[in-house]
Amino acid sequence: MSNSSFRRDGCLYGDNALFVEEVYEGYEKCANALPDGWGELFTRIEEGKPEDSDRGGTDYEACSSGTSVSPKVWGLIDFFRSHGHIAADLDPLGLTERVGLGHEEYLSSIDPNKDGSLWQKSGFSLDRLLEKLKKIYCGKIGFEFMYIRSNEERTWLQNKIENMRLECAGKEKRELLFHLQETELFEQFLHVKYPGYKRFSVEGGDVLIVALEEIISLSPSLGVQEIVIGMSHRGRLSVLTKVMKKPYVAMLHEFSGGMAYPSELNVTGDVKYHLGYSSDREVQGEVIHLSLAYNPSHLESVNPVVMGRVKGKIDSGLSVLGVLVHGDAAFIGQGVVAEGLNIGGVEGYTTGGIVHIVVNNQVGFTTSPNSARTSLYCSDVARIIDAPVFHVNGDDPEAVVAVTKLAMEYRDKFKKDVVIDVVCYRRYGHNEGDEPMFTQPLMYKCIAQHRTVAGSYGDKLVAEGVVSTQEIEEFRKKFRAELDKAHAAVSAYKPMKADWFEGCWKGLRYAVPGCFDDYMSDTGVAGERLLALMEAMCSIPEGISLDKKVSRMLNARLNGVKSDSIDWGAGEALAFASLLAENKRVRLSGEDCGRGLSRTAMQG
Questions:
Q1: pLDDT tens-place string over residues 76-125
Q2: Which residues, at least 6 apart from 567, have a Cβ–Cβ distance to it below 8 Å?
Q3: Measuring CA to CA, which of 70, 79, 336, 462 is 20 to 30 A from 101?
Q4: How confident is the model at residue 26 (pLDDT cuts 50, 70, 90)?
C-alpha cells in the first residue's frame, strides 16, 4: 500500500486516530513488523515529510517546514475539525449550555518530547496549538464538514477554514453597521406606526440582511447574473425593501390598506408577507437581476418552485444562483426540504448548488427545539447529501460575512448545496399579536434585556474607532426622515404597474374570446411522415437481440400505423418523435413518465 493509497483512504483522519496510534506504537517497537506501507508512512512523518495532501493547509506554525507531527497530534487536530462545532459559542442569548469536547484523552497521550520535533524546532507549544484550534473551531462559528466523503472537498474546506480571515476591513464594517441600522429602524418604524399588525419581524435575526447583501456583493466576481430567492414570512418585509429595493412608500401603502397592484388589473392580491418582487441591482459595474418568489403560508412549499426556476434559467444559458431562506423548525420538520436536497443533485434536476440560510431563532411558533426534533441541529437533514453546514452566532455580523463568503466559494467550486445556520432569536412572538412570555418566559425575559445586534455592533465599532457615536446618530436621523417622508406620501401613492408583468412577461393580458385566433396553427403530421417515424423507432440495430414481448409490441405498433389503428402508447411515441425530428426538446421527468405508466396501473 503506497502513501497515495493512505491519502485516498484518509487513514489519518480523526475517526481512525486511535487505530493509527496503536499501529504507530507497533512501529516504534519494530518498524519491519508492520504491514506494507505503514512503516514508510511513519518514516516520512518522522522525517518531517507528511505529504498527506488530503490534510490541507492547516497553516499552523507547528506544521512549518522541517517539523514532524505524530499521528497523536494529527488525531488532536482532526478531533477539533470533526467535533469543535459542539463547543462553539453560537447562542447569542447564552441560554444553551456549552459542552466540553472531551479532548483531554488526546492531550494526555501526547508527549512533546516523544512525539516528534514539533515543539523543539518551531517553539510551538501544545498550549498554543490548542489555543489556535479552539479559536478556529470553537469560536463564533461551528463548522460541520468532516463527514463529507469527498477528500477533495474536505481538503478544500480545511484550507479555507484554517486560513479564514474573520475580521472585516474598516469600510466593510461601516457598511455592515448601516445595513443593520436600516433594518432595525425600518422594523421599529413599523412597530410604532402600525402596532399589532402582522409583519413577522426579522428583529433578532437581522444578520439575514447582512448575509443576503454579501451574497449579492460577491455574485459578479463569481459570474452570477441572476439570483432567485425563496423564503417564508419571517423577515420578508425587510428583504423586500432593503434587499429587493421595493420602495418604502409602496410597502407603507399596503400597511395603510392599499393594494399592491394597479386597480385596473382587477386582482384580489395577497397579504404583504406573501408577495414577491423583481428588481435589477448594479453591483461592481454589473447588473444583477433579483427575483423573490411569491410564497404561500405553507412553509417550504416555495423550495421546488425556486429550484425549478433556477433549473429552467440555467438550461436557457444563464448563470443563476438559488437562495433559500428557512426557519429552523421548518427546515428539519418539513419533508419537502429533504426531497429538495435529495433531488437537487440528480441529473435532470441539478441547480448548480443552492445556498440555504436557516434563520434559527431557536423556537418554532411556541415549540422549543427539544420538543420538535431528535437531532442535535436543525440542519442535520443536510447531511444526507454531504452538504457542509456552517453554524454562526447571529450577534456577530463579521462572522456571518465570513461564512457567507465561504459558502459562496464552496458552491461556486463544487456546484453543491451549502447551509448557513444563523443561530439567533425572535424579538417578538410568532407574529406581533402573539405573547411569547406565556410559552417561553425564560427566553423572553432574556431577550427583553438583550441589546440589539445593531446596537452592540455599533458599540464595538465605536470602541475600535471605525465610526463615531455622532455618525451613527446622524445616519439614524437621516434614515428616519426618509421613512417619515415615505409615510407622508402614502395617501397620494398609486401603484402604476405590477412587477410580475415586466421583463419576459411584458405584454401578457387577460384572455378574451378570439384573442388566440392569430396563434392557432396546424399541429397535425402527415400519415407518410408518421409511418416513417414509426419505422425508424421499430428499426432494430444490428447485433441487438430483443425480448420477444418487446418485439411483438413494436411489430404491433408498426402494423397499427399502417392500418390507421394505433394505441395510446404508439400515439405518445409518435408525438415525441415528431417533436424530436423538429429539434424540439422533450423532457420525461419522474418514474411514471419514464416507465410509461399504464392506465391499468394508474387505476390500481
A1: 888 999 999 999 999 999 988 777 787 777 777 776 555 544 444 445 57
A2: 556, 557, 560
A3: 70
A4: low
Let me know if 371 is exposed, middle or buried by CB neighbors in 10 A (0-12, 13-18, 19+): exposed
C-alpha cell belonging to residue 131: 489555543
| The CATH number of domain 170-498 is 3.10.50.40 | no
Q: From 442, 444, 446, select the one nearest 429 (Cα to Cα).
A: 444
Among 202, 288, 281, 205, smallest CA distance to 246 is for: 281
Task: Write the pLDDT tens digit of every residue in 92-106.
Answer: 999 887 777 877 777
Mean pLDDT value of segment 575-583: 94
- Residue 21 exposure: Cα atoms within 13 Å on the Cβ side: 16
**DSSP characters over 405-461:** HHHHHHHHHH---EEEEEE---SS-SSTT--GGGT-HHHHHHHHTSPPHHHHHHHHH
Q: Do the Cβ atoms of 530 and 561 come closer than 8 Å?
A: yes
The one-letter code for the residue type at 78 is D
How far apart, in Å, are the Cα atoms of 412 and each of 223, 416, 534? 9, 8, 44
Average confidence score pLDDT of the chain: 85
Task: Note the helical H segments in 248-356.
Answer: 248-255, 303-315, 328-333, 335-343
Query: Residues 6 or more apart from 204 whose CB is under 8 A from it?
Result: 361, 394, 424, 425, 426, 427, 447
At residue 421, what is the residue type?
D
User: CB burial class (10 A; 0-12, 13-18, 19+) of residue 263?
Assistant: exposed
Return the domain boundaries, the chain.
3-162, 170-498, 527-603
Q: Which amino acid is at 458?
A: G
DSSP letter assigned to residue 184: H
Question: Dihedrals φ, ψ of 179, to 5°?
Answer: -60, -45
Residues 574 and 581: beta-carbon distance below 8 Å: no
Q: Which helix (H) or strand (E) holds 389?
A: strand 389-393
Q: How far is CA 494 from the centre of its chain?
A: 37
Which pTM was predicted? Answer: 0.83
